[in-house]
Amino acid sequence: MGTWRGAPALLEIVVPARDEAERLPAGLAQLCAKLAGLPVRAEVIVVDNGSTDGTAEIVRSWRGEVPVRLLSCERPGKGAAVKTGLAATRAPYVGFMDADMATDLAALDEVLVLLREGRPVVVGSRRHGRSVVEGYALPVRRLGAITFNRLVRDLVGGVADTQCGFKFFAGPLGRAAAADLRTTGFSFDVELLAHCVRRGAEVTAIPVVWRDRPGSTFSVRRHSLECLLDLARIRARAGRRATSPVDAAPPAPEPVKGALALPDGGLPSASGAGPG
């Protein structure tokens, strides 16, 4: 089971949270129940991004089989919170997901298989041909998302959906990419993936079941201009880096020995994974 006591975590998941006191208890319960059933030890890191409600207290008082720890990030922005969380990880495999758990956690099974096979970056894609998407926002937001992703495909290795909040990495690569992350707002996913791609990492997109949740803090009217400006900055920095030597990819994590190793046949085959 994923709750072996005293053993180091094989998987650490970051959950950025700002004023999530209403949704976080159900989300954490759902996530911890899934992680407790995995054949690896897992831990959760909740990053409180300047909440003014009871978000932090919920995490402090959380008790359960899966360890959940609290970090604070006073710098506003989801990107800043994810960077803080990834920097604090130590596990061979790391990732992040949204507090609303909009992505069905069954996808974690395939994520683990692919990471074990050596895939350095695994992301959920709502535009994968086998994804099931329910209630995906307003038409204007859907159109904006499609346009945005077409603008950035060359930066992120052709991924069709950069904004799904369900991304996982080989630990050394995820920490190295997060260390270079400068975008604090909603476009941070693009820069994070771009840092992985320029290190030579291939991005594997997998199908997900995704359900729109009420309470999203993203607003097309308030944040579209900010996202476009962030994208311009990301491209400018990518151009400057292109004239400098490319960073070498960090070494892959060493094979996990003993009880932490995923047992052969312990998870379903990932042969159905494909591009987004």
From TrEMBL:
Domain of life of the source: Bacteria
* Alphabetically ordered keywords of this record: Glycosyltransferase, Transferase
The record, for SUPFAM superfamilies, names:
Nucleotide-diphospho-sugar transferases
Q: Under which main EC class is this enzyme filed?
A: transferase
Q: Which InterPro entries match?
A: Glyco_trans_2-like, Nucleotide-diphossugar_trans
Q: Which GO terms describe its molecular function?
A: glycosyltransferase activity
Work out whether the entry's keyword set contains Glycosyltransferase: yes
Q: Where is the composition biased (Low complexity)?
A: 265-276
Fetch the Gene3D superfamilies from UniProt.
Spore Coat Polysaccharide Biosynthesis Protein SpsA, Chain A
The answer to keyword Transferase applying to this record is yes
Which segments constitute the Glycosyltransferase 2-like domain? 13-164
This enzyme's EC code(s): 2.4.-.-
Disordered as annotated region, ranges? 240-276
> What sections of the sequence does the record tag as coiled-coil?
none
Q: What name has this protein been given in UniProt?
A: Glycosyltransferase
